[in-house]
């Protein structure tokens, strides 16, 4: 199990150091600094030296590090690091050197609560916030009775929810967010099109509400069993927040749960069949001799004309020896960024059905050694509201509570891509 | 409450002990809201963090325990956890305060007290703690009980005899039946740790307890689920039906959001499948495992990496899992390098006739990327693909030729290396491309590629008109070359001479090289091989011809699959470090507990036939077999039927790229002397035998075959740096 937990800044200075076990001294931090922080070519998130293993996750300008001398469960260690990061974000709004330094005392409290002797313990943000606060608490101020409530919640079957939540207006917001991963070959064939979806929920509901959630999904176990199943969306896989009763899902395919209070990720899913690609990219890139490259890139919005794609950003690679790029665009702005060897073409909005074209010529310096240009893919980022690439729709969300209050539910859909929509040319 | 920002960064400043002491004293008076005291304590904690020794302040800091602020108490406790151990003669001052807290009405305070005490593992503290612990293990509040359960593990680690004598282990065992799932999970975690320490306590589960634990899964926290799932490997099913029922109950956990829960559930399922007989259920479970594994590939890159390394093992043992999913393992341009390399290996494993074209197209893309290691591995993978999938060999060769055209030196070198293997896989089919290779000979500056090229020149000296000229050029620098190149040159010139006995150049060449090898070079391998050829040629050139040009068995890719017994054993470590390095943990982590399938009436006959039993003790440095000089007899290492222990020793010690065991020596010579006829046959003969004979299969390190047949293909596998056997002990002592 985890023997030590550290946070380092970019210079390798220790911001947090907690040794859960006596098999290390604090000086073990120096080893990490030498092996990872000052090493410009780190090629693994896990480094094992002798019997000692270092696991690290980089976030902003920090290294979150766990050290062990055992055959630790690597997935658990990384999940723990991720969890620490999300707790820190929930507590301090962000996680970076400044926020860690400003809150180090609370962080020490937190990491002692969410980990005991290297074993991760209850790490539900909602529960933690009920007894680890950024304000000083007088020992006697937490009455024994109040504490019992906290402890039973921290160890209970619904450790993610306080029982005494009250809202005047009971509301639940459901956000279906889909990230499209696309990899298209130079010939225009789709190498891989996949939707990573997650359903984010913000529940502001009183008491202990029982929720039932329905989608137009169909989970496919065996791809050979696939058939025309009406408008049902075929999901390759889904995973749920711990509040969802997995047994019930397994037997009757209903998603039922008592939600945590506030925001949480209800489920994650993956779909690979019938992925609707919101943006089509057609590119013609020609190397003219050794001195020029010409680009003609057309982008087409492939969805209902009532919807629109926003924040569209294309990153179009240019050869390393480019001196200047002459761009012509009808919509948006295109700019050559020499430091990154790309032309960034930003289009604030594209209406459904609309088409935009980019014309450019890149001038190259003549180099003595002619190196082949690797041609990295064109990368497209965008957002389309009220559109799901998988076709997923929320059918219902029912809330049952013993006081039988009325609740309002809102559903929103968003499809986006960032760094994963790639077109080779 | 979110977004709230503290303002404590200013305390990160190196301070002097004396200053802090004065400030603490000043805080004794006129400090209404304990503001001053809090400030000093924060400064002290910040200094502890920065690595400054604050222990001289011990007596001053503990004075603050009187303050009624929880925040202050926690900071003092933090101080005690850092320095308490070093102050056995002073720690008694705080014991009364601890004891008072242990009996506080507030369960959070009670738990905090025992948790902190148990972090100070010295007798002065453990003595009073064990008294308190006895009550706390039975506390009415589950939070206190779950904390106490972990305290027992801490107590056991600090003083196992005390913990056993005090009956704490039994109390933990009883806690597995607690009504609260969190308590159950922590008791299981503590027992697992104690059981793995191998000093007396054996932690096993029977069917009743195992079922009770599974029932607790639903109410456990995600971490608790991991501890419980992990412990299920301590249950050995006596009947297939038990394993099947349990498997069905574990399947639902595959849908969990936490990747560690998913991987641990997969580990349990893989384990239980060894005890199942219902084929349909096994197939169903395999089908159910695929999608969650793929989903892990969209987690954070670190978890992706863990998942990928595990998938590589899983698909070797259960090839139906992910059989049709090669596309999801295509690399994204911006994947971290460790993810890309792991994906590449999986792509190769999943490649077959139906998808070879797609896979090749991807590999060609990768071969033009920037990262040198990745490009090299992509080029090699193209070669391996040609060897593995016969139907794709033609297009792979074409791809390699295109790559050679790029003239990028490392690409050309890799291409030459794999081409050599392709020649051996498809004798007589692709020799037409030799002229193309010869054109690029100048680009070869690394020993492995040079040796490969030389092997090709020697092997096909009869088909290459100017082979003698080319070799003559290469021999020019003979004395400066690496040993593997020298060995290759030696063999190649001998072959040339045999092919072209009447050529004066060939005669001159072989004479020159033999003379150098036997008189000028210090390397015994080279010298001995030189003498051997020399005598052979002198005594009977015809026999020499038969020996040197004997037909070589074609290489296959069957050999780069790990053998099943080793896989079964490694998969018991799914999700852990061992599964990332593909090594059993006891071979690279000191005091790590090994695992092995346990025989039972339910154990599948196939699994039993390859069963690897666990060696009871860990290897100390003295146990490691280092091959001495002299003739090597592999026989003693091939286990006699029934005794698998020596076999185990070999399979564990001989990791890729590390010191090898006796059996491997032969192969590593073969490997280094790529051109040496003496070694060529061995690799594959062994391999063929392995497939049908489980006992022999066990005898070899699973990767030893691979390394032999495929040169350095696995050289870039992740590995722990310097194992315990070499510098390890020193390193451990130095640092910790």
UniProtKB/TrEMBL annotation, chain A:
Every MHD domain range: 169-424
Endpoints of the signal sequence: none
An annotated GO cellular component: clathrin adaptor complex
Main location: membrane
Localization, UniProt: Cell membrane; Membrane, Coated pit
TM spans (from-to): none
Keywords: Cell membrane, Coated pit, Endocytosis, Membrane, Protein transport, Transport
Keyword GTP-binding: no
Database matches in Pfam families: Adap_comp_sub, Clat_adaptor_s
Membrane topology summary: Peripheral membrane protein
UniProt KW tRNA processing keyword: no
Any one Gene Ontology BP term: endocytosis
Family: Belongs to the adaptor complexes medium subunit family.
PANTHER family with a match to the protein in the record: AP COMPLEX SUBUNIT MU
Name of protein: MHD domain-containing protein
Automatic annotation (TrEMBL), chain B:
Residue stretches making up the Clathrin/coatomer adaptor adaptin-like N-terminal domain: 21-539
InterPro entries per the UniProt record, alphabetical: AP_beta (IPR026739), AP_complex_bsu_1_2_4 (IPR016342), ARM-like (IPR011989), ARM-type_fold (IPR016024), Clathrin/coatomer_adapt-like_N (IPR002553)
This protein's GO CC annotations: endomembrane system; membrane coat
Keywords: Membrane, Protein transport, Transport
Keyword Transport: yes
Amino acid composition bias (Acidic residues), ranges on this chain: 683-693
Region (Disordered): 625-736
Localization annotation: Endomembrane system
Gene Ontology terms, MF aspect: clathrin binding
Example GO BP: intracellular protein transport
Described purpose of this protein according to its UniProt entry: Adaptins are components of the adaptor complexes which link clathrin to receptors in coated vesicles. Clathrin-associated protein complexes are believed to interact with the cytoplasmic tails of membrane proteins, leading to their selection and concentration.
PANTHER family: ADAPTOR COMPLEX SUBUNIT BETA FAMILY MEMBER
UniProt similarity note: Belongs to the adaptor complexes large subunit family.
Designated name of the protein: AP complex subunit beta
Species of origin: Serpula lacrymans var. lacrymans (strain S7.3) (Dry rot fungus)
């Amino acid at each position: 199990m985890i023997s030590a937990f550290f946070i380092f800044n970019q210079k390798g200075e220790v911001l947090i150091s907690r040794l859960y076990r006596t098999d290390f001294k604090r000086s073990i931090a120096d080893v990490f600094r030498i092996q990872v922080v000052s090493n410009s070519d780190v090629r693994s998130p896990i480094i094992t030296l002798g019997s000692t293993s270092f696991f690290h996750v980089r976030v902003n300008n920090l290294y979150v590090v766990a050290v062990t001398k055992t055959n630790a469960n690597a997935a658990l260690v990384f999940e723990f690091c991720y969890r620490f990061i999300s707790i820190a974000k929930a507590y301090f709004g962000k996680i970076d050197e400044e926020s860690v330094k400003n809150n180090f005392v609370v962080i020490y409290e937190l990491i002692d609560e969410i980990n005991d002797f290297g074993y991760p313990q209850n790490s539900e943000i909602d529960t933690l916030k009920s007894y680890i606060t950024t304000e000083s608490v007088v020992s006697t101020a937490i009455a024994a009775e109040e504490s019992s409530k906290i402890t039973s919640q921290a160890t209970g079957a619904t450790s993610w929810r306080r029982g005494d939540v009250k809202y005047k207006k009971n509301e639940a917001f459901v956000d279906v967010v889909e990230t499209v991963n696309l990899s298209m070959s130079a010939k225009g064939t789709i190498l891989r099109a996949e939707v990573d979806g997650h359903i984010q929920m913000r529940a502001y509901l009183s008491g202990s509400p029982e929720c039932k959630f329905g989608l137009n999904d169909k989970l496919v176990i065996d791809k050979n069993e696939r058939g025309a199943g009406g408008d049902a969306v075929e999901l390759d896989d889904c995973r749920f927040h711990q509040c969802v009763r997995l047994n019930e899902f397994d037997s009757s395919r209903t998603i039922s749960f008592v939600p945590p209070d506030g925001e949480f990720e209800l489920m994650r899913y993956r779909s690979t069949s019938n992925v609707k690609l919101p943006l089509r990219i057609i590119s013609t890139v020609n190397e003219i001799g050794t001195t020029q490259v010409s680009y003609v890139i057309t982008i087409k919005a492939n969805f209902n004309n009532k919807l629109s794609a926003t924040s569209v950003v294309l990153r179009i690679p240019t050869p390393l020896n480019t001196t200047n790029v002459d761009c012509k665009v009808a919509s948006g702005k295109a700019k050559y960024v020499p430091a990154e060897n790309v032309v960034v073409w930003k289009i604030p909005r594209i209406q459904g059905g609309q088409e935009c074209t980019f014309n450019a010529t890149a001038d190259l310096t003549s180099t003595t050694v002619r190196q082949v240009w690797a041609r990295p893919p064109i990368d497209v980022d965008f957002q389309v509201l009220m559109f799901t690439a998988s076709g997923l729709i929320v059918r219902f969300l029912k809330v049952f509570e013993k006081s039988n209050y009325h609740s309002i539910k809102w559903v929103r859909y968003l499809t986006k891509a960032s760094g994963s929509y790639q077109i080779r040319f | 409450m979110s977004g709230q920002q503290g303002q404590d960064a200013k305390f990160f400043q190196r301070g002097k002990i004396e200053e802090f002491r004065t400030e603490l004293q000043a805080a004794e008076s006129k400090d209404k809201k304990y503001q001053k005291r809090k400030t000093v304590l924060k400064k002290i904690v910040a200094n502890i963090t920065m690595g400054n020794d604050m222990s001289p302040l011990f007596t001053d800091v503990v004075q603050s325990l009187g303050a009624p602020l929880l925040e202050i108490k926690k900071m003092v406790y933090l101080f005690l956890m850092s320095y308490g151990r070093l102050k056995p003669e002073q720690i008694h001052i705080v014991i009364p305060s601890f004891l008072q807290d242990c009996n506080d009405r507030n369960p959070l305070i009670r738990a905090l007290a025992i948790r902190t005490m148990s972090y100070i593992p010295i007798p002065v503290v453990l003595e009073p703690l064990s008294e308190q612990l006895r009550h706390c293990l039975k506390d009415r509040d589950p939070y206190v009980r779950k904390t106490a359960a972990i305290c027992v593990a801490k107590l056991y680690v600090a003083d196992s005899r005390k913990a056993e004598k005090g009956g704490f282990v039994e109390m933990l065992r009883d806690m597995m039946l607690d009504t609260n799932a969190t308590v159950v999970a922590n008791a299981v975690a503590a027992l697992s740790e104690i059981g793995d320490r191998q000093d007396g306590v054996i932690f096993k589960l029977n069917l009743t307890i195992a079922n009770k634990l599974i029932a607790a899964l639903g109410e456990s926290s995600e971490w608790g689920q991991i501890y419980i799932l992990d412990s299920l490997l301590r249950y050995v099913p006596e009947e297939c039906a038990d394993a099947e029922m349990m498997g069905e109950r574990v399947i639902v956990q595959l849908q969990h959001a936490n990747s560690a829960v998913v991987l641990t559930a997969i580990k349990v399922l893989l384990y239980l499948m060894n005890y199942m007989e219902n084929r349909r259920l096994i197939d169903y479970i395999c089908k159910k495992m695929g999608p969650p594994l793929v989903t892990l590939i969209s987690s954070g890159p670190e978890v992706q990496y863990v998942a990928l390394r595990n998938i590589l093992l899983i698909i070797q043992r259960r090839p139906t899992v992910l059989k049709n999913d090669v596309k999801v393992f295509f690399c994204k341009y911006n994947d971290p390098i460790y993810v890309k390399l792991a994906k590449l290996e999986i792509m190769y494993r999943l490649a077959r006739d139906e998808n070879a074209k797609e896979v090749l197209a991807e590999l060609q893309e990768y071969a033009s990327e920037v990262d040198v290691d990745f490009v090299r591995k992509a080029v090699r993978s193209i070669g391996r693909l040609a060897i593995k999938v016969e139907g794709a060999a033609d297009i792979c060769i074409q791809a390699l030729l295109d790559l050679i055209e790029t003239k990028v030196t490392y690409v050309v070198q890799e291409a030459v290396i794999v081409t050599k293997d392709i020649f051996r896989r498809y004798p007589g089919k692709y020799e037409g491309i030799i002229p193309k290779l010869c054109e690029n000979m100048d680009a070869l500056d690394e020993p492995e590629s040079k040796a490969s090229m030389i092997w090709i020149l020697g092997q096909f000296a009869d088909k290459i008109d100017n082979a003698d000229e080319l070799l003559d050029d290469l021999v020019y620098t003979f004395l400066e070359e690496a040993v593997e190149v020298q060995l290759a040159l030696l063999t190649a010139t001998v072959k040339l001479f045999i092919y072209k006995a009447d050529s004066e150049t060939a005669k001159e060449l072989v004479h020159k090289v033999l003379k150098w090898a036997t008189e000028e070079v210090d390397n015994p391998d080279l010298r001995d091989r030189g003498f051997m050829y020399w005598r052979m040629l002198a005594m009977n050139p015809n026999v020499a011809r038969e020996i040197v040009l004997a037909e070589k068995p074609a290489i296959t890719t069957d050999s780069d699959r790990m053998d099943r017994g080793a896989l079964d054993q490694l998969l018991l470590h799914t999700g852990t470090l061992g599964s990332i390095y593909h090594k059993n943990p006891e071979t690279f982590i000191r005091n790590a507990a090994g695992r092995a399938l346990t025989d039972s009436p339910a154990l599948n006959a196939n699994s039993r036939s390859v069963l690897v039993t666990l060696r009871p003790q860990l290897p100390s440095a003295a146990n490691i077999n280092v091959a001495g000089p002299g003739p090597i007899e592999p026989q003693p290492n091939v286990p006699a039927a029934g005794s698998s222990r020596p076999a185990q020793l070999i399979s564990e010690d001989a990791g890729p790229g590390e010191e090898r065991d006796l059996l491997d020596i032969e192969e590593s010579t073969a490997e280094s002397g790529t051109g040496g006829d003496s070694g060529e046959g061995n690799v594959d003969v062994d391999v063929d035998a392995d497939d049908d004979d489980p006992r022999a299969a066990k005898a070899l390190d699973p990767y030893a075959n691979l390394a032999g047949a495929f040169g350095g293909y696995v050289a870039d596998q992740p590995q722990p740096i310097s194992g315990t056997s070499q510098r390890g002990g020193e390193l451990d002592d130095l640092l910790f």
